[in-house]
From TrEMBL:
<dbReference type="InterPro" id="IPR050312">
    <property type="entry name" value="IolE/XylAMocC-like"/>
</dbReference>
<dbReference type="Pfam" id="PF01261">
    <property type="entry name" value="AP_endonuc_2"/>
</dbReference>
<dbReference type="InterPro" id="IPR036237">
    <property type="entry name" value="Xyl_isomerase-like_sf"/>
</dbReference>
<protein>
    <recommendedName>
        <fullName>Xylose isomerase-like TIM barrel domain-containing protein</fullName>
    </recommendedName>
</protein>
<dbReference type="InterPro" id="IPR013022">
    <property type="entry name" value="Xyl_isomerase-like_TIM-brl"/>
</dbReference>
<feature type="domain" description="Xylose isomerase-like TIM barrel">
    <location>
        <begin position="23"/>
        <end position="275"/>
    </location>
</feature>
Amino acid sequence: MKFAVFTDSTPEWAPEEAAKILAEQGWHGIEWRITDPVESSRPTFWAGNRATWPLTGLESHLDDIRSVTQSAGLAMPALGGYVTPRQREDAERMLAAAAALDAGQVRFLGVNTEKGQSYREAFAAYRADWEWLEGRARHHGVRALLELHHESLTASASAARRLVEGLDPRYVGVLHDIGNTVIEGWEEPAHAFDLLGEYLAHVHVKNVAFHLSGVQNDGTLRWEPKWVPLREGRADLPEFFKALAGAGYDGWVTVEDFSVALPLAERTAANLEYLTGLARAAGYDLG
């Protein structure tokens, strides 16, 4: 098992700084955030994030991405894209970049129903998108990742398996994100991994807790999810790692911690120490 950080969770660091600090802390890899920047007066996770490579003109940045990553001695377990399979030109760009960088995998965003569309109609259209994407991933020799994500057609392992069933797992896989499934799509991890089987291709880790956000006039309590440190949320990460071990998963685990209780460098260092301990306790031999 190897550990990486997704740079959507390191907004304060420029790429060179992110790679240098993560390598010095002992991380094995870095999963680059690739999307066109949104300006902000200060760096945040989703706007003004400095550890981001632009999607537009991505081809002209490949040498820089490779140089920054390799100079730090890091690997790229995947590219963190923000496009969907129906954005054909950009999907093609991401797959080609992964092939050129030897990243091997690309995360694609999920979709939800559109106005006036039923779930079944949306699901059928999305399946067609993934059939197209499988062909393009095969062409480039990389794998497209379907992320389990709340507020999408594939929030659960069950829905994801139904979507990708019959597609070639060499070129299509599922990215399990336990933090997202706490919000929507929760299934017992051991069951989820067994169900995904050969399609379980990548893992993201973050954690979330629900907080009281208000009370309606009739006394109904309203709860909202909030990203919290890995040790503090609803997801039972010790049991999660035991389930990964039980499923025979020995791939990458990438962290995207959106909590802000600790300064960024302290947060990433503490996360690596915690996850390394969890993996060893679950029976992984980390050398």
